[in-house]
Amino acid sequence: MAEILLLVVGATLVSAAAHRAGASPPIAAVVAGLLVSFVPGVPDYHLDPDLALIVFVPPLVYSDAVESSYLNLRANARPIGLLSVGLVLFTTAVVGLAAHAVVPGMPWAAAFVLGAILAPTDAVAAVSIARRLGLPRRIVTILVAESIVNDATGMTVFRLTLAVALGGTTTFLDGAAEFAYTSLAGVAVGLALALPVRRLRGWLADAVTENAVMLLVPFGAYAAAESFHASGVLAVLAAGLYLGHHFAGASHEARLQEKATWRLATCVLEAVSFALIGLQLRPVLRALHTTDPAALGRAAAVVFAAMLLARAVWIFPATYLPRRLSARLRARDPAPPWQHPAAICWAGTRGVVSLAAAFAVPPDMPDRDLVLFLAFSAVLGTLLVQGLGFPAVARRLRLRDEGQAREDDLAEAMAQEVAVRAALARVEARATSGQEEVPGHVLDRLRDLAEHRCSTAWERIRADGARVRAEPPTAAYRRLRREMLAHERSVFVRLCREGRIHDEVLRRVMHELDLEEAALART
């Protein structure tokens, strides 16, 4: 228990320091785990594959799915399918061929097991960097969806190749049938769970209870799908997309709590999972202490290079060839600049799912320790090389999407004005119809609030796309109101310490002030 507590506390502190320094928390956690693994006296942390798949994967997938746009995923279904299915199969074949060629005596089956382990991506590190750098939304959407959907493909291929490596037999039709079943059944289980949960969250009156139920959804969807031998990842994805698409049905308090809850859970789970990746180095090396280090390094380099090459060889033709062959596709979805597929190529990091699959290989499989080492070194290589290098690559490709931010601001301002005017008209209609007696000063205050919200949205928009150098009126209002709120807090705290108000009164007032300041931070 003490070891687990130290792991969680240490990983969280590293993540906090990375956030403070503006670095990528997942990459920082991996590097810290690597360094700590060689400190004398540090215990070995063995990654339990079952624990990793049930503890880390469902909540991380669900949090991404809830925040994802179903409409964007549907609009990008073709590239997502090519990456999450076609690229997984292609990577399995390329890595398997490379491993069999570079490692003398490695059976074909074991080589393809390694390929299946390394085929699915884990875009947590890359996406965290992409969002911070402001990369185009389509790139981020494709990376997130690929990393979620291709887990199902990768795990299906892994089970099939592992069965062959352990002496079983299978055919292409068997594999295709199993993939179709696991995928469709996984989506069906996720939707079957999400439908009643959506109705339940509308019935529950307590926000805390509602969010307690929502916390159970990813684990319930994953476990239910796996009990039917379906894809737990796709079940979690389907449930998260459906509930995220209908998030407006929840109460405002539940939405605020849910967003904060999943941010907290994601922060801790990402930090711990990536720290565990770094901590695996010493146990993995110990299992191969009698093997020639030069041969191990050569094999690891070839496998890593094959994995990168397979991604580049697949992505560029998959991006441009369909458009060359289809005029309709070309008209509907023009070819992106070469920088877009280049960024997607570089962002193909691997993570905890690949490592969990590697550790799930039974001890009686031939070359199991070597497969584990090659998988670990490839995962580590993608995180350190691609993860650390991604900011520099993105800057070199000049992919920062300022235009998207401006389009979002413009759309928000237009929608904000329409919504505010409609809401104000409704209140004024009630006041003038005689249905309700509304004091004049209340109507004036509501009009001022509506004008403030519209002005705040439109002030983000400038004809030249630049921000205004002089402070706009609404910005001055926010700045001065924050100063007032800070002073009000200090007065309330002083009054509480003097015994003039109770602690409960202080907490209630502080909560109201916090909500107002949070609204100011957004507007």
Automatic annotation (TrEMBL):
Signal peptide location: 1-20
The entry's keywords: Antiport, Cell membrane, Ion transport, Membrane, Signal, Sodium, Sodium transport, Transmembrane, Transmembrane helix, Transport
Annotated TM spans: 51-73, 80-102, 108-130, 142-167, 179-197, 204-224, 230-248, 260-279, 299-321, 342-361, 373-394
Name listed for the protein in its UniProt record: Na+/H+ antiporter
Localization: Cell membrane
Topology term for the membrane: Multi-pass membrane protein
UniProt domain Cation/H+ exchanger transmembrane: residue ranges: 11-394
Lineage: Bacteria, Bacillati, Actinomycetota, Actinomycetes, Kitasatosporales
Primary site of residence: membrane
Function: Na(+)/H(+) antiporter that extrudes sodium in exchange for external protons.
Matches recorded under InterPro entries: Cation/H_exchanger_CPA1 (IPR018422), Cation/H_exchanger_CPA1_bac (IPR004705), Cation/H_exchanger_TM (IPR006153)
Protein family: Belongs to the monovalent cation:proton antiporter 1 (CPA1) transporter (TC 2.A.36) family.
